[in-house]
Design brief:
The complex is a heterodimer of chains A (about 525) and B (about 325).
Chain A (H helix, E strand, L loop, with lengths): L1 H12 L1 H20 L3 H5 L2 H9 L8 H27 L4 H27 L4 H25 L23 H25 L21 H28 L5 H22 L7 H35 L6 H8 L3 H26 L10 H30 L4 H26 L11 H33 L5 H36 L1
Helix pairs in contact in A: 1-2, 2-5, 2-16, 5-6, 5-7, 5-9, 6-7, 7-8, 8-9, 8-10, 9-10, 9-14, 10-11, 11-12, 11-13, 13-14, 13-15, 14-15, 15-16
Chain B lengths: L1 H18 L23 E4 L2 E5 L4 E5 L2 E4 L5 H14 L3 E9 L2 E12 L16 E7 L7 E3 L4 E3 L13 H10 L7 H9 L3 E2 L2 E2 L21 H6 L15 E2 L2 E2 L17 E3 L10 E4 L15 E4 L8 E2 L3 E3 L2
Parallel strand pairs in B: 14-17
Antiparallel strand pairs in B: 1-4, 2-3, 4-18, 5-6, 6-7, 8-9, 10-11, 12-13, 14-15, 15-16
Classes of the chains: A mainly alpha (about 525), B alpha+beta (about 325).
């Protein structure tokens, strides 16, 4: 019994355990629901899955099911980012426990009852519990924002700190996290307000289906703004997280954090103003420039750091260009996040900018179907790129080493790039081929996409299986993780207690005099 | 490790090379002629009354009208072009095509269109009065041949739905015979009927669910998919009528009013002109579409100048 409770303790009370469990949940969702679309649908696996699991697939409810599926996956990813933030950012232990507990309970309710409601019958108790889960995650967001409050004296940085700060010591990186959290809460409200009109004047829709509708209702605008900014904010959060991981600091850090704060604010205002104004897109472009510049500075800093660190490790005094490149790509886990951000410019931002610039000249000359494929393609890629960055980061956190580290890292990077590159070509195929001659390009882009995604999923599966097996070992990696976290928590709590005793002593002295 | 990596890369390249061998495009293979036994000249009466419209089943009133039982075939469209050329209602030559901010010239059949009001709305298509392209004379996917005097259909495709026809060309066909293109509500009523099951209208013309041999869609694995690959090709009108063709058993997939191909095969132009936009909606999905896009309320859209190998039409006529 003690051994079971130790493992439960690990999975529910340590950061790595919580992330691992959330990753397992996402993996289960991906594997199960991945059977319902793409090649699995073509091969007939979809029908077998539906029959085996007893899913109720009412045709008219497909869009609603997909929206619930997106929300459940997004909530788990948000939970993972929250776990990381509460771990890497200084905050009270009590806050960390409260936030993690709330977000965990929230995402579990969301996943279980959201999926039950969407795929196994519309029992409105399920829907209520699904909403309770979303509400708890929102509440966890409020708690996180309070915990992140950057103006607290204890979070001020000393004047000589290499990390971005104001003259008064305000930690700009913490402020960027805080702004992102507040923006997320605001954006979630837009979704929640519209959701409250569901069945009461608001009808379910997928945004890509409305792209050519000239006049949209305010509620439709709210949803379109909400979904765009939520994904953007998840991307901003992971960029800040990997910055912290790579010990981003110095002048570039200061500029990047200022850009990130301003960019996050502008881009959020832009996305949400879709409800009211026609020029919302212009605001989004301005905000995007700030955020993307911040990400660029991160890439410059970390790549330079990776090169310098490795060159120093090898003792090379005057490294050649080739040696520098070799040093850069030496560790795929640390090279990967920056690379995925660069790659994103070709498959997401570049496509988005191209579509905006050439909308009336090219995109709107195509049928809606082709425009829709391009739109859904580029945001699916962004979401998946974020997932790969989380995977690379987590693999480093759990101490993947040696060849396994390289194999894991490079498989994720190369095969995801293969898949996303192929999807991009597939989405933009009408630029190169006539509609009647697209068969060949469809065949090979789909094949490469399937190979890429399949390999990434297999690698993820092996990784998850390894961690599962590890849980059965008495002194597995999980116990090392747990011990390390316990030590860190103990030290943190001692420090907090010490501060508290100092405060109380001070109060006693003051009252005695 | 390097050797394993190289081996895997090599295997991947071989796999890709084998998989990406020459794939026929839909213009380069001639399918066999298949007689489905469905009369492409037949019309069906759709009585006046309410029906569940759209994904959320809003009860909507539609007046009585008649609609073609099948899509307009290549043979029918060739006949129209010959008659229109002879009567002067259509011409052949270079015609300027405008779409969005682009303009280009194409050689094809054209005719006059009176244009539509333009409000200068954001992204609004400006449809000016003038000669408009009905169908190009060159390009993959064409099923009609022009010998300098007459249009004829390729033998194998005479009873396939006409494709590569613009909205202007579809509209001209219907108007030439005193008919018109169906409004979206009319089209959807003809496709799904009025029946409600558990308070829901039919998502497909034949009922609540879809099987592979109900319709011609992406990866439906009909006999043509074997010849043309996953994207497939058009099937003869009325192909999915419960008959067996060369060992391929179809399901009878007529709509409640006896219409064929209201899901899959080719998208069908509809007649509504939406102000501030002027894109034309296409209904029914096509052999390019996934199953879900065959649901009766789904639509595709394009400017009226657009033509493609998966877009056709059928006409309606008022009873009174």
């Amino acid at each position: 019994m003690n051994s079971v409770s130790k493992r439960i303790d690990y999975l529910f009370r340590s950061t790595n355990g919580l992330i691992l469990m959330a990753m397992a949940v996402v993996s289960i969702i991906t594997v199960t629901w991945g059977m319902l679309s793409g090649p699995m649908a073509e091969w007939g696996v979809r029908e077998v899955t539906i029959r085996l699991l007893g899913m109720q697939m009412v045709q008219a409810e497909r869009e609603a099911r997909i929206i619930m599926l997106y929300h459940t996956i997004a909530m788990v990813i948000i939970a993972i980012e929250v776990y990381i933030m509460t771990d890497i950012l200084p905050m009270k232990r009590q806050s960390q426990v409260l936030i993690n507990g709330t977000v965990t309970f929230g995402y579990m309710l969301t996943v279980v009852f959201g999926m039950l409601f969407a795929y196994w019958g519309q029992n409105f108790m399920f829907h209520g519990l699904y909403l309770l889960g979303l509400s708890l995650i929102f509440f966890a967001g409020i708690l996180l924002s309070i915990a992140l409050w950057p103006w607290r004296p204890e979070y001020r940085l000393p004047a000589d700190s290499p990390y971005a700060h104001t003259k008064k010591g305000l930690d700009l990186e913490r402020t960027a996290f805080f702004v992102m959290a507040i923006a997320t809460l605001l954006s979630a409200s837009f979704g929640a307000i519209t959701g409250s009109y569901w069945g009461n004047g608001h009808e379910t829709f997928l945004a890509e289906d409305l792209i050519r509708t000239p006049i949209r209702t305010a509620l439709q605008g709210a949803i379109i703004g909400h979904l765009h900014i939520m994904l953007t904010l998840i991307a901003i959060a992971i960029t800040l997280i990997v910055g912290r991981w790579m010990d981003f600091k110095g002048r570039l850090h200061k500029i990047a954090m200022i850009l990130m704060i301003i960019g996050t604010i502008i881009i959020t205002i832009g996305a949400l103003s879709v409800v009211w104004v026609d020029w919302a897109h212009t605001t989004i472009y301005v905000g995007s420039v700030f955020v993307m510049l911040a990400a660029l500075l991160y890439v410059i800093y970390t790549w330079r750091k990776l090169i310098n660190d490795r060159v120093a490790e090898l003792g090379l005094e005057k490294p050649t260009f080739g040696q520098k490149v070799k040093a850069l790509v030496h560790d795929p886990l640390k090279f990967g996040p920056g690379w995925q951000m660069v790659f994103m410019n070709f498959t997401v931002s570049g496509i988005g900018i191209f579509m905006a610039v050439k909308l009336d000249e090219i995109i709107r000359v195509w049928p809606h179907r082709d425009e829709r494929i391009t739109l859904t393609g580029h945001w699916h890629i962004l979401a998946s790129l974020i997932a790969t960055i989380i995977l690379l980061y987590f693999a480093d956190r759990v101490g993947l080493k040696g060849r396994v580290r390289k194999w894991f890292g490079w498989s994720i990077i190369v095969m995801s790039n293969l898949a996303f590159g192929a999807v991009t070509i597939f989405a933009m195929k009408r630029l190169f081929v006539a509609e009647a001659g697209q068969q060949s390009i469809v065949n090979w882009t789909m094949l490469l996409t399937d190979i890429g995604l399949f390999t990434v999923l297999v690698v993820l599966g092996i990784f998850m299986f390894w961690r599962l097996i590890d849980l059965f070992r008495a002194k597995g990696f999980w116990s090392e993780d747990m011990a390390a976290e316990k030590r860190a928590v103990a030290l943190q709590e001692i420090e907090e207690q010490r501060k508290r005793i100092d405060e109380l002593n001070k109060a006693l002295k003051e009252t005695a005099s | 490790m390097k050797r394993i990596l190289m081996m895997m890369t090599l295997l991947l390249l071989v796999f890709v090379a084998v998989s990406c061998g020459p794939t026929p495009n839909i213009g380069s293979i001639t399918p066999p002629y298949i007689d489905t036994g469905v009369d492409a000249e037949a019309w069906a009466l759709i009585p006046a009354g309410e029906f569940p419209f759209g994904q959320h089943d809003h009860m909507t009133m539609v007046d009585e009208f008649e609609i073609m039982v099948t899509d307009v075939t290549n043979e029918q469209y060739a006949r129209f072009l010959n008659e229109a050329l002879a009567s002067g209602a259509a011409g052949i030559g270079e015609v300027e095509v405008e779409a969005g901010e682009s303009a280009w010239t194409e050689r094809g059949v054209f005719g006059f269109y009176p244009g539509e009001p333009f409000d200068g709305f954001r992204h609004e298509e400006e449809i000016k009065a003038g000669d408009k392209l009905f169908m190009p004379l060159e390009g993959d996917g064409l099923r009609l041949v022009f010998d300098g005097k007459q249009f004829t259909s390729l033998d194998a495709y005479t009873n396939h739905p006409v494709t590569m026809v613009t909205w202007f060309g579809a509209n001209a066909f219907c108007q030439y015979y005193g008919w018109r293109l169906p409004l979206e509500a009319e089209w959807e009523k003809a496709a799904r009927g009025t029946e409600l099951v558990d308070d829901r209208g039919r998502p497909f013309p034949w009922g609540m669910e879809i099987e592979r041999n109900n319709a011609n869609y992406y990866s439906s694995f009909d006999v043509f998919v074997k010849m043309f690959g996953k994207l497939g090709n058009t099937t003869p009108v009325g192909f999915y009528n419960g008959k067996e063709y060369n060992g391929y058993q179809t399901l009878d997939s007529a709509s409640p009013y006896g219409l064929y191909d209201m899901a899959g095969n080719v998208f069908q132009w509809t007649g509504d002109d939406y102000p501030n936009q002027h894109y034309r909606h296409m209904r029914g999905g096509s052999f390019y579409s996934y199953q879900v896009d065959l649901r009766v309320w789904k639509y595709n859209s394009a400017g009226p100048q657009y033509y493609g190998p998966a877009v056709g039409f059928r006409c309606v006529r008022d009873v009174n």
